[in-house]
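hey m, so remember when u said the tokens were messed up on ur end? i reran from scratch. heres the input so u can diff it against urs
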Amino acid sequence: MTALGVSGQADPADKQAVIGRLDERTAHYGEMAHEIWSLAEVGYQEFKSTRLLQDELAAAGFSIEAGVAGMPTAFIASYGEGEPIIGMLGEYDALPGVLQTASPERELRTDGAIAGHACGHHLFGTGSAAAAVAVKEWMAANNVKGTLRYYGCPAEEGGSGKVYLVRAGKFDDASAVLHWHAGDRNGVGMGSSMANKSAKFRFHGVSSHAAGAPERGRSALDGVEALNFMANLMREHVPSDTRIHYVITKGGEAPNVVPDFAEVFYYVRNPDRRVIQDVWGRLEAAAQGAAAGTGTTVDWEIIHGNYELLPNEPLGRTMWENLELVGGVTYDDAEREFAERIGATLPGGRAAALEVAAQVQPFRPKSPPFPASTDVADISWTVPTIGLGTATWVPGTPGHSWQAVAAGGMSIGTKGMMVAAKTLALTAMDLFTDAEILAAASDDLEARRGADFHYEPLLGDRPPPLDYRK
């Protein structure tokens, strides 16, 4: 085999060999993903999941740097030396409260789990590891120069784990970064995303008997409700693509006790982080006003902050060509029956034909922003970055749903994961062997972010919130 093809990209025979090797390992990686699915550990608590991934990569010949950037469950696995330096991202945190078995009907897990992989991060972490091992073996067999890195990234769901890696300079020398995500169809993401910032607002009052001496109390819950009222009024006077979400995480212990402590957890999103900064300042002012008006005090803790995603067209075209080569997900009879039953449970019925899972979506250089947020975005402003989505869920399934947990826990999820693993591997091979792609990707990044760009994380200089899920 040769490392370079006629066009400068990886040899087609090498690519077919890597695809075949990953096919042979499908059962192994499916079992590994399912183990992480069963563990369902939340952000910054993924101790068993990160150990599984680290052990897999160490056994394959990667060196492991654990506990990076102040996060015990973060790690970097490296192979090779010199340039180019190609990174692959892996995630492995679950979402609290989304409990479900691998069943096409609503069926809660009863084994003590407190979370579920409703965003498919068990597949994300495992699939990227599968790709990294396959590329490492190809590099060793062909004496390919350069460095391959797997970044183990905790707490994507509201913890901004990758932002701390960026802030610590862990991507400063990377040539390109590849990632993927679970989804309901196969395509390369050329759209941006919503920037996002969050905080827990904590009100402090004075407790008292709610009936016998209410005049002596100052309700922290009143402070929370006053903030919520003002935030809901503010919705009319912010850009229409802004999103404001909140949950009351602490509201008191008993109705007959004036609460001396209450907490509300806020998210603010917009496709432009500059808009978020403006809206966020108004939210903080509303919190101060709520405290003044209720005779309480307030403080807040910034929990996370993510930029909007910056796509990269040269990397996107390269990844899409490889996804086209790999193809989509084909269901067997049992999987099709499972998918039909899942479709019947989706609100309003299934919104997409099952055949979508087997298709590769067209490449669209200009796509609307995706209405969600990701900490991959901060990486994308630092180094050329691109990702894809694959059909790990039944077409029409929304993320963060029990239906996503169910499909991700059975063979449909595994098949979509292996589409991603193959596409990541083939794309990395091209980047190691074609310097022109990397040069074009670097130029594209500079053009999109502007020459005067200076990175400042939205979450400031706070340390990782290791207890935000406790």
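this time it looks ok to me. Residues 195-306 form a domain with the Alpha-Beta Plaits fold (CATH 3.30.70.360). if urs says something different then somethings off w ur setup not the seq
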